[in-house]
Structures are given as structure tokens and as C-alpha cells.
Amino acid sequence: MSEYELADVIASYSVAAMTAMTLYLTAVTAYLVAAFSAGARLSRAQVVIVNALFVFVSGFFLYGTAGYFYRQLQYVHELRLLAPNHHLTLNIETIGFIASVEFLGIIASLYFMWSIRHPRSE
What we know:
The chain is mainly α. The chain is 83% helix and 0% strand. The chain has one domain (3-117). 19% of the residues are buried. Keywords: Membrane, Transmembrane, Transmembrane helix. The chain crosses the membrane at residues 12-36, 48-70, 90-114.
């Protein structure tokens, strides 16, 4: 691939990863709003369904974010071979950090739902 083609593919994977991150944030926000507004009134079965769907959807977008960034990284390495003087910041540590933050967001969201359903009595 030419330098231009690699840069174009890298940009495409970057856009796909950012789209997956946006959809992840949308799913988390919708879950948190639902938890806050209706969490205490949901039956146990309803909470199980909502939690399962949330974990599936947010996990899917987490996987997409990391996967697209990882694929982008493969092309970044190819571009570095063609143009070693280009400054490209994506690395495996950054991808791991983003995936970890998204995973912790899922755990924190589930805790939020739990805390809404089990309020502390003072």
C-alpha cells in the first residue's frame, strides 16, 4: 500500500473506533438514566433483563472500540516502515487504557443500578 492508502485506512479505522466509543457512551448513558429514573421500581426479572442487555451491548461496543483501534495499530506499524519520521501516537498501551476505562464504566454502571435498588437507610 502507498503512504496515502495507509493513512486513509488508518483514518477509517480511527473513525470506526470513535463511533464504537460514541455508541458505548450512548448505551451507558441510557442505562444510567434508566437506572436513576426507574431502577427502584423494576422487578428482579426486569433488572436481570436490563442488566444482561446492557452488559451485552456495552461489551460489544467495548470489543468494537478495542478491535478497531488494534486493527488501526497494525496499519500504523506499516506506515512507520514507509515513513519513519512521522509521529504516530497510537500504541497498545493506549488501546489497553481505553478498553480498561470502558470496562470500569460497565462495572461502575452496574454498581450504580445496585445502589439505586439498595439505598442505604440512615
